[in-house]
Amino acid sequence: MLVVIAVALFVAVWTRWTLRNLARQPLLRRRNYRGEEVIGSAGLAIVGASLLGWLLLGWRGELRWQESALLMATAFWFSVLGLMDDIAGETQVKGWRGHFSTLLKERRLTMGMVKAIGGGVGALILSAWVMGAWGQFQWERWLLGAMVIALSANALNLLDVRPSRALKGFWLLSLLGVGVTRGDGWLAFVPLWASTLAYAPDDFRRKAMLGDAGANPLGACFGIWVTLRWSLTAQVLLLLVLIAFHLYAERRSLTADIERVALLRWLDRWGVRA
Predict the structure, then answer these.
(1) Is the four-CA dihedral 220, 224, 225, 226 of positive or negative sign?
(2) Angle at CA 121, nearest 5°, toward 179 and 85?
């Protein structure tokens, strides 16, 4: 346990150090929903520190190398795709319908579509890797796992439109995940918990935002963890919830609906600087 605590502290410190360095990069400066200039793609600090955390946990034998490698590959791939979209994405094209419409009508790929394709391919490869970790390949579980990974990645991205929302979503999801397994596998979340908690003050105070480079890997890592730990039934139920959430988000304004519900409005604003 002392090793785990030491790794968590190291990850937290590394996150803060990286975040300060990201603040000096003009390429990563963005305007938030209020028009304030903040650190964009600040989730890179979370991903970088978590990669080191998983590496240390695997090296010390606290976490199986197979699981450490899966989480590192997932975080790296989805962070790269997210960063590409953060830097070169078209902000005027929104949602899957917008990207598909641009492809069909203008016959060109938006960066959002490139990210979706890359995320889908990555999810299929990662899900196949999970099958290899189990020692057997099952078509239905392979496809189910890929869909859970891809949709989990995008779900966190859909939440990352207001301060703290994606972080709170990740914390709730990860705690739910550990609750379903009755604590089994919690150690894999330690680097992500430590890094997101260290990063959170800047997000809550509107000094930084995760960006796709941070929100996508957070969701994808939750998805890969679920494919490793949850039962088939639990994964199917999660997939149905994710599909429903995406259909809802395509047709409604999540922010407007949160404002209409007192409990959700309070949770959304809790801890955020006015």
Answers:
(1) positive
(2) 90
pLDDT-flagged residues of the chain (< 50): none
What are residue 119's phi and psi, to 5 degrees?
-65, -40
Distance spanning both ends of the chain, measured CA to CA: 38
What pLDDT score does 88 carry?
Answer: 75
pLDDT of residue 239: 97
Q: CA angle, corner 47, sides to 42 and 52, nearest 5?
A: 135
Asked if 179 and 228 touch (Cβ cutoff 8 Å), the reply is no
What does the pLDDT look like over 55-92, one tens digit per residue?
Answer: 999 998 888 888 999 999 999 999 999 998 888 766 66
Q: Are 119 and 216 in contact (CB under 8 A)?
A: yes
Q: What is the pLDDT of residue 57?
A: 94
Determine contact, residues 34/206, Cβ cutoff 8 Å.
Answer: yes
What type of residue is 267? L
**Helix 65-88 to helix 111-134 angle, to the nearest 10 degrees?**
180
Enumerate helices (H) and strands (E) in the chain, giving the number of each.
Answer: 12, 2
- Alpha carbon distance 200, 210 (integer Å): 10
> 147 near 160, Cβ under 8 Å?
no
